[in-house]
Design a protein that fits this description.
The chain has 320 residues and is of the alpha/beta class. The chain is 37% helix and 22% strand. Strands 4-1-5-6-12-11-10-8 form an eight-stranded mixed beta sheet, with helices on both faces.
């Protein structure tokens, strides 16, 4: 009799559990791209010592940076037709503007960047998620693209590792979301960011420009050698566009002595989290190659970096 009652009890429990589970709502999940490809716009060679190797280049530290976050790199040349860039846009899942030194309004670099920027604006407006990241000159380029004019001035911070003067917006930003509290404190107190620039956008100029002020949130500022307060970190209010005047990639992937590359545990952690952050933004883009063979042939893997520490501050450079 006891066995019959026990079996009846078990049957009721299992039936109840099944009914409860069946009644649970189905959770909808956004599609995720686990094979993100980040396009990196090549930089024009201007240094005489580098000219024998190619017309354009990408320092290997940027490639390693993206790869360390779980992404793959597609180098984007500056000599293609507009229709080809449009095709590439539909294949990549994000875009990185690297540091360097070019005319940000009249160069081929500026022309191609503007084309991709326009495509990214339209895509995001239509619900087609596409992120852009600008490092050093890349941040400067983003301000030119948004403002429609060059607002740069002397904000020299050459070969300096600095803490960030974080703004109130930093704690609620997408870029720093989820950062451990101790890292956020270190970011404001320790020299974790390598700076190698002569120009930037001052806070005063930024706030006086309606287009910049409405487009970006300032996440941090710093003070230049001449006392100018400049924007050092920013992110789009509406669009997934991000800019840093400093170099997160050098913390883990550049080592030349005499240069202020931060290598402390917190500096490494900062670089790692930001690489993962941007690559994860790329995962939200569902752009893809239609042809696997074209995809394989378009990525950085078929190129060999050149040892360049004897002529530059980079250990390795990809030339094109």
């Amino acid at each position: 009799m006891l066995g019959t009652r026990f079996l009846t009890y078990v049957h009721l429990v299992l039936t109840s559990c099944f009914c409860c589970c069946a009644a649970l709502p189905q959770l909808s999940q956004q599609p995720v791209n686990d094979r993100p490809v980040i396009g990196v716009l090549t930089q024009m060679v201007s240094d005489e010592a580098m000219k024998p190797f190619g017309r354009t280049y990408i320092p290997a530290s940027y490639v390693k940076y993206i790869e360390s976050g779980g992404g793959r790199v597609m180098p984007i040349r500056l000599t293609l037709r507009a229709s080809e860039y449009k095709t590439i846009f539909g294949q990549i899942n994000g875009l990185l503007f690297i540091g360097g030194a070019v005319d940000l309004q009249r160069s081929d670099y500026a022309r191609v960047a503007k084309l991709f920027y326009s495509l990214a604006l339209r895509a995001n407006e239509a619900g087609d998620f596409f992120p852009i990241w600008g490092t050093c000159m890349g941040l400067q380029l983003l301000t030119v693209l948004v403002a429609g004019e060059n607002l740069l001035s002397n904000t020299t911070a050459e070969n300096l590792a600095l803490p960030l003067n974080l703004t109130a917006e930093a704690s609620s930003s997408r870029m720093f979301k989820g950062f451990p509290d101790d890292l956020m404190r270190a970011l404001a107190q320790e020299p974790l960011t390598g700076n190698f620039h002569h120009y930037g956008v001052t806070v005063k100029t930024f706030l006086a420009n309606t287009k910049l002020r409405s487009f970006f949130s300032i996440l941090s500022t710093n003070v230049a050698a001449n006392g100018a307060h400049f924007v050092s970190t920013m992110e789009g209010k509406k669009y997934p566009f991000y800019g840093v005047q400093w170099h997160p990639e050098v913390n883990r992937f550049q080592w030349k002595s005499g240069l202020s590359f931060p290598h402390s545990p917190h500096a490494i952690q900062l670089s790692s989290l930001l690489a993962e952050f941007f690559t994860n933004e790329g995962r939200r883009s569902l752009h893809h190659f239609e042809d696997p063979e074209e995809e394989a042939s378009s990525l950085i893997y078929k190129y060999n970096p050149v040892y360049a520490a004897n002529i530059t501050g980079y250990e390795q450079i990809y030339f094109f």
